[in-house]
Write a structure and sequence with these properties.
By secondary structure, the protein is of the alpha/beta class. 30% of the residues lie in helices and 26% in strands. Strands 5-4-3-6-7-9-8 form a 7-stranded mixed β-sheet, sandwiched between helices. The chain has a two-stranded antiparallel sheet with strand order 1-2. Strand 1 and strand 2 form a beta hairpin. The model has no long low-confidence stretch (mean pLDDT 91).
């Protein structure tokens, strides 16, 4: 059993989060995603900033952003009811419920009809990016105790990411940022797909501390 499930807690970006089998355990590697998103938001000079965090899980990225960016309002979504309930609990724990709202549904679908079209300054996501065949080969404590939907990205591990890149276009503001985590070895392929859409520019791969590209940033044209 993962230690975070035994203790019920996990640290992320210097904050403590409630954990459980309902959602992915917040991981140190995903702090690169949160840090990158926060840095980009700090560059935006607007009175009110709209943020979406898709595949929010325990809500750790969404809450870390709201905690750092005082003038942000975060719309967080996840396909799992259980994950959303856990994320709400974490938002309440950090007294951020007034600035983080949660929606249950498939990827960005629950956010399509609430008036955000063309108004989102940054969209972050830690999507499932493990190929379906490799999910069962992951370490026992991961594939047995954490939700499969949080890992399974389809036959090649990129199904959800390609959907994200396409579906985000209608929601992002002009020059809005798309920031998301990718799996080991996926960066170059996904960077190429982003370029081919013709909808993004200023595309950058962000390396982790070991030199592996793990986060992609793109700006809506």
């Amino acid at each position: 059993v993962p230690l975070a499930h035994i203790t019920g807690k996990q640290s992320f970006m210097g904050l403590e989060f409630h954990c459980g089998p309902e959602a992915l355990i917040p991981r140190k590697e995903t702090e690169l995603l949160a840090t990158t998103a926060i840095q980009k938001l700090q560059e935006i000079k607007k009175e009110n900033i709209n943020v979406i965090d898709a595949c929010t899980g325990a809500g750790n990225v969404a809450i870390a952003i709201a905690n750092e960016i005082d003038n942000s309002y975060v719309y967080a979504a996840d396909i799992s009811d259980g994950a959303i309930e856990l994320a709400r609990k974490n938002a309440e724990f950090h007294e951020l419920s007034s600035r983080v709202d949660f929606f249950c549904g498939d990827l960005l679908k629950p956010l399509n009809d609430i008036g955000l079209e063309g108004k989102v300054d940054l969209l972050s996501c830690n999507p499932p990016y493990i190929s379906s065949a490799k999910v069962s080969e992951m370490p026992h404590e991961i594939c047995t105790y954490e939700p499969e939907a949080a890992f399974d990205g389809g036959p090649f591990g990129v199904n959800i990411i390609f959907r994200l890149i396409t579906e985000a276009q209608d929601l992002l503001d002009h020059q809005g940022y798309l920031v998301f985590e990718v799996g080991l070895g996926q960066g170059a392929t996904i960077e190429k797909f982003l370029s081919k859409t013709g909808a993004y520019h200023n595309i950058k791969l962000i390396d982790d501390e070991t030199g592996n590209p793990r986060v992609l940033v793109a700006q809506k044209i």
